[in-house]
Amino acid sequence: SSNMAKSKFEYVRNFETDDTCLRNCYIVVRLDGRNFHKFTEQHKFAKPNDNRALGLMSRSARSVMEELEDIVIAYGQSDEFSFVFKRTSTWFKRRASKLMTHVASHFDGRVVLYPSNRNLKDYLSWRQADCHVNNLYNTVFWTLVQKGGLTTAQAEERLKGTLAADKNEILFSEFNINYNTEPAVLKKGTTLIWEKRDETVTKCMKLPNAEEKEMTVTRSRRRVQAHHCDVIGEQFWEEHPDILED
Ligand code: ATP
Ligand code: ATP
Ligand code: MG
Ligand code: MG
Ligand code: MG
Ligand code: MG
Ligand code: MG
């Protein structure tokens, strides 16, 4: 380190707390848009779900995942995205604030450690359950406002104390909307994972003392793939056994 670092002022470094993440845990960094409720109004988002915004979130998360190789799965819904670092990651010596700030920009964030596969699956299930509950509520709420002519206050009053079944019933009997046929991206959120794809490219080969030749080359490439599927049941994990470590 520099001469500055060795000055009499160096002791202030000891005021920093050690935020090294416990070894052998999955490290989850969850980002959530700050005051997004207001942001969506200022930017006139379509309610309850602006698909351009969801697409932008997903595209941004994909860039983060492509940039930070130790991320094994990412899950997003609404204005939030969770990024899961592999258990064995040694990136930035597992320092929580380093990991979080490298993932984050205009988002609040937190770092949480999950020691077991069960804990991590439950974490993602928790976020997806949150997605479902909120999206069902928001879908009925905004349908009551946009198609039912209620004020936002009236819609809120109407939905007080209603269960999921009641909300499905309002949508179906009053507005002829079957919640089950709503887009999966809204009901399930977005899960990003690495997938191997065989890619075939045609290459123009020119060997010395030979004529040009068209050749097809097949190579396996890792690509970030988006899914809008259920991650609460075991099926997703059975179909993608490489994400989690034993
Ligand atoms: P920590 O990760 O704990 O914050 P650090 O990496 O910030 O540690 P520092 O002691 O702050 O460690 O050192 C920063 C490093 O970056 C030093 O090696 C320094 O020489 C280098 N560095 C910073 N700014 C420049 C610059 N403009 N040009 C070249 N090197 C730089
Ligand atoms: P905080 O700063 O506490 O997170 P917030 O206003 O961001 O406050 P959240 O609980 O994070 O509150 O809720 C996110 C808000 O953004 C909700 O009102 C949600 O409806 C809205 N929102 C998120 N994504 C979209 C979208 N794609 N289209 C329309 N509205 C959205
Ligand atoms: Mg420095
Ligand atoms: Mg928010
Ligand atoms: Mg949120
Ligand atoms: Mg530094
Ligand atoms: Mg530094």
From TrEMBL:
A Pfam short name: Thg1
Keyword tags: GTP-binding, Magnesium, Metal-binding, Nucleotide-binding, Nucleotidyltransferase, Transferase, tRNA processing
Enzyme Commission number, as recorded: 2.7.7.79
Details of cofactor binding: Binds 2 magnesium ions per subunit.
Catalytic activities: a 5'-end ribonucleotide-tRNA(His) + GTP + ATP + H2O = a 5'-end phospho-guanosine-ribonucleotide-tRNA(His) + AMP + 2 diphosphate + H(+)
Top-level taxon of the source organism: Eukaryota
Domain (Thg1 C-terminal): residue spans on this chain: 119-232
Residues binding Mg(2+) 1: 32-33, 79
Residue span(s) of domain tRNAHis guanylyltransferase catalytic: 9-112
Residues noted as binding Mg(2+) 2 in the record, renumbered to the chain: 32, 79
Cofactor(s) recorded in Swiss-Prot or TrEMBL: Mg(2+)
EC primary class: transferase
Binding sites annotated in the UniProt record for GTP: 32-37, 78-79
One MF annotation (Gene Ontology) recorded for this entry: magnesium ion binding
GO BP of this protein: tRNA modification
Similarity-based family: Belongs to the tRNA(His) guanylyltransferase family.
Function in brief: Adds a GMP to the 5'-end of tRNA(His) after transcription and RNase P cleavage.
Protein's name in the database: tRNA(His) guanylyltransferase
Biological source species: Champsocephalus esox (pike icefish)
